[in-house]
Structure formats: structure tokens, C-alpha cells
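[INFO] parsing input record for GNAT family N-acetyltransferase
[DEBUG] input buffer:
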Amino acid sequence: MTEIVPVSGPELITYADELAALLVETVDGGSSVGFLAPLDRDVAAAWWRERAGAVDAGHLQVWIARDAERPAGTIGLVRAPLPNARHRAEVAKLMVRPSARGQGLGRSLLAAAERSAAEAGVTLLVLDTESGSPAERLYRSAGWAECGSIPDYASDPAGFLKPTTLYYKAVGSAQRAPDRPASPSTSSQATPFG
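[DEBUG] output buffer:
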């Protein structure tokens, strides 16, 4: 049985090597998640470890879908750092191990992020995904609305420029932005999962 659990910064460091394997498998399988193939496993593990501070600071939440062997999937939720955008968060790095696809893990991970966002007072979620990717079916079926596409937005793992499609979803109830400390962010905190 697969369990979806949030991870702390120290846990993210503990799982970094296993999550690196998932990231490498995802990139080498052709999914556009910000990296080019072939992705070095040590580079991928370092990338995960570098996110631990953002998790501990509350700028990033990460969940893993863990089966008996290893992480079968993951998703991140990046909180908007600016005072006028604290009602908003970005869903990022939804990945499911190829051998675990088709079992509803992507949908379960997405639901966990949506639920947590709403509980935290977030009312608007956004994401982008490679246009034409299988992930688009998941987002549409989960109630996400397409709001446009951008040509030549990012390179796929092979290095070819591809368009991205932007999606949004209202969650929770729109009132006023959640209270959060007004502290300046560094660029790594502003986009810790990009």
C-alpha cells in the first residue's frame, strides 16, 4: 500500500537519494520538470537537499507517495512570498515513478496538495505543464482550468523548446490573504522548487 506523507526539511535530506532516483527516472523518461537528460543522480540529490531550507522556512511543502520499496511519487507546493500574493501557491514537480503510474497516485498527490493549501488559507493554486503532456488530462479531470499557453517556454529533457500550458484552480474560500510574516525573500526562497 502507498501512503502519502508530508516531509520536513530533515526528512527531505534523508530521502534525497531516493527522490533523486525518481527525478532521474522522470527526466530520462522524457518528462519536462526543469532538467535536461541525462540527469546526473548526484546533481539530482543535491537539488533535493537544497530544498530543505525552504521546507523548514514554510516557503515549500513536499509530499511523497511512499510504497514498501521507495518513493513512488512526489509533489511540491510553493507559497508565494510577496504580501499581495499570499493567497496563492504554485503546484510543482508532480512526479510518479513510471512503474507506479495508472494507480491514481498522481491524483492522490494533487489532492493532498490542494487540501493542505486550502487548510492553510490559500485560495488560488497555479501550475504549468508541458503542452500536450499526459499530465494535462489529470489536471483537467481534477477540475483545473486552462488559462493559456506560452510557446517555446522551456526545453524538454532532450533540449528542444516546448510550449507550456498554464492552469489554475480555486480552493478554500476567498476572503482576505492569510496572515504571514512580512519578511524579505531571497530568490531561492521565492522560487524554491522551480
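[INFO] Residues 3-172 form a domain with the Aminopeptidase fold (CATH 3.40.630.30).
[INFO] shutting down worker
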